[in-house]
């Protein structure tokens, strides 16, 4: 229906050329610095405030789920930081490393890339889920992809189609190995027409756990829209949609959510899942909501709320 991007992420990446290696290094350094600063600020309780050390627990050391199968920083488990019903949620930050995804340019001329925003959102969501007793698995916890790349996987500054498929299958394997109860993938949308915007969540409608897929998607869509609205930006409600309808699927099922398709998805995801596209990076109002102060944190909060509400509902069923 032409409502998604006209350029695939790969096409965009090809056009962007080879400056990416340096960009990745810089982003990696910034991410490492912010991680260190985050840990320091969380570990330093206010010396004389009454609620001193009772705020956020220190960030835990990520534990590799299967160090033999994933590179450092890929597929890591974070323990709960607070009490609550036991559950494991896999959070998948879309794109990464040599695959930047889509991008948008703010009114100030800053370029924001999908891969950086998805990582920030999953990290923020992870902290909130941990606080409610949930074990969190991150398919990637750094800029780098969570799946080892074969020689030749990056050509002309972009992932090849085959490498991209292996990367997606690696994300599924991570969620499966970790025995996650739910899988949530975070992406952002883009389109040639800057006026196109809004919030959409994709789910698979026919698998044996389709009812849970739909419930999870509905919960995420509602929580994201509510949080964005509370923050002063009400995006268009594009609703929840069949996973074969989005740009990320290339017209077929999403690798992350789809059923077994021999030769394409040999080992499908084994748990309910959804892929969120909270905003369009190419829409100025949408981009301002995510690029502004607290934007990724607010979306992380929304994702955690959406998953949390779904888990609470699942326990009552
Ligand atoms: Zn994407």
Describe this structure in words.
The chain has 317 residues and is α/β, with parallel strands linked by helices. It has one domain: Aminopeptidase, CATH 3.40.630.40. It has 7 helices and 12 strands. The strands form 3 sheets. It has an 8-stranded mixed β-sheet, sandwiched between helices. Strands 4-5 form a two-stranded antiparallel sheet. A hairpin with a 5-residue loop joins strand 4 (103-105) and strand 5. Helix 3 (114-131) packs across helix 7 and helix 6 (284-291) crosses helix 7 (295-316). Zinc ion binds at residues 94-95, 101, 114, 187, 248. One of its GO terms (cellular component) is outer membrane-bounded periplasmic space. Residues 86-111 are annotated as: Disordered. Residues 172-308 form the MurNAc-LAA domain. Keywords: Hydrolase, Membrane, Transmembrane, Transmembrane helix.
